[in-house]
Amino acid sequence: MREREYWVRPPPVTAANLMADIDRITGLNSTDSTSDSSIGSITGLDTTDNTIYNSIDSITGLDTTDSTSDSSIGSITGLDTTGSTIYNSIDSITGLDTTDNTIYNSLTLDSITGLDTTDNTIYNSIDSITGLDTTDSTSDNSIDGINGQDTTDNTIYNSIDIITGLDTTDNTIYNSIDSITGLDTTDSTIYNSIDIITGLDTTDNTIYNSIDSITGLDTTDSTIYNSIDSITGLDTTDSTSDNSIDSITGQDTTDNTIYNSIDIITELDTTDNTIYNSIDSITGLDTTDNTIYNIIDSITGLDTTESTSDNSIDSITGLDTTDNTSDNSIDSITGLDTTDNTSDNSIDIFIGLDTTDNTIYNSIDSIADINPNKKIE
Fold first, then answer.
1. What superkingdom heads the lineage (predicted)?
2. Where are the alpha helices (DSSP H) in 190-303?
């Protein structure tokens, strides 16, 4: 007797069964209706937690952890952009120190010129160039350094002493005359002493001709200026020491300014009391309008126009960071289209699927050629 055959009805088609079938056919893991593991299987990328970051890392070898491009820029350029700052990067390119967002140590006027610009002062720098001491913004000690004279308290008296060997303490010339002539001018009288020693005639209380006879000086008009000139070889016309300083130092101090003197010593141009052209001369940089931008550009070859680092990053990385967005940059690195900050079209480019409307279903259909609405016989 023939054995009776029974037809077994297949299990109903459910979403869970359908997903399991898709996994079995495609080798994909569609658990929880996420496409992460599936994309990972197709592309070899790690898209854990629906992030594209690790995928970009796999393609480019970059580290985009925490959605920041800092480490990525670091990987491309070899620069250190820790904390989203570009300062350390500039340091890496130029070998400068821009700690604390200050440009002083970097431009370093110090590093380039060997000068000390501590506290934004140029005094020590001038000292380094000229070997002078301009402490307290006074040129007194500087003049001392040039001519070996002591001008303490802005007085020229001790300087005259050093040149002539005379003692002009208290602005008096009396003891000096004593030193020259060996006379005693106590009580401001010199008449009898001169007469006794020299046999000169000081009639009418005039001493002019007598001094002339003793010293060979010309004291016409009761002025001592010509006498000092004769002793020292200086020109003290009009009671100014400007020309005298000129004679000692060979510098031009016209109008009591030290600017032209600095020019002569350093070969710098300090016209209009500005040090800008001087810095330009030392460093070969352009500091026009007190801007540091052109200087950074000159050192690094970057474009920092309008205080933005966007173009600079572009120059380093070859990326387009227009409007401070990294979208186009990611596109340049990966060849993906991240328009409107969506990764849908990018996923399409990876796997050749259509994920329009953020659905994966049509894509699965394309892979498996399965129609969930088709009746299974």
1. Eukaryota
2. 191-198, 208-215, 225-232, 242-249, 259-266, 276-283, 293-300
| pLDDT in the model for residue 289 | 47
DSSP string, 30-95: -GGG-SHHHHHHHH----GGG-SHHHHHHHH----GGG-SHHHHHHHH----GGG-SHHHHHHHH-
Residue with tokens 């050192």: 299
Question: If phi over 0 gives left and psi between -120 and 50 gives alpha, with beta otherwise, what is residue 110?
Answer: alpha
Cβ proximity of 344 and 355 under 8 Å: yes
Quote the pLDDT of residue 20. Answer: 72
Whether 358 contacts 344, CB under 8 Å: yes
> What sign results for the dihedral spanned by CA atoms 242, 243, 249, 253?
positive
pTM over 0.90, yes/no: no
pLDDT at 17: 72
pLDDT of the residue at 220:
53
Q: Are 3 and 345 in contact (CB under 8 A)?
A: no
Q: How many CB atoms lie within 10 A of CB 223?
A: 12
CA neighbours closer than 13 Å in the CB half-sphere of residue 129:
21
Residues 298, 300, 304, 309, Cα dihedral to 10°: 180
Cβ contact 319:310 at 8 Å: no
Q: What's the CA gap between 126 and 132, in Å, rounded? A: 7
Residues contacting 369, CB < 8 A, separation 6+: none
Buried b (16+ CB within 10 A) or exposed e, 181-215: bebebeeeebeebbeeeeebebeeeebeebbeebe
| pLDDT under 70: residue ranges of the chain | 1-16, 18-19, 22-377
Tokens of 87: 């300062």
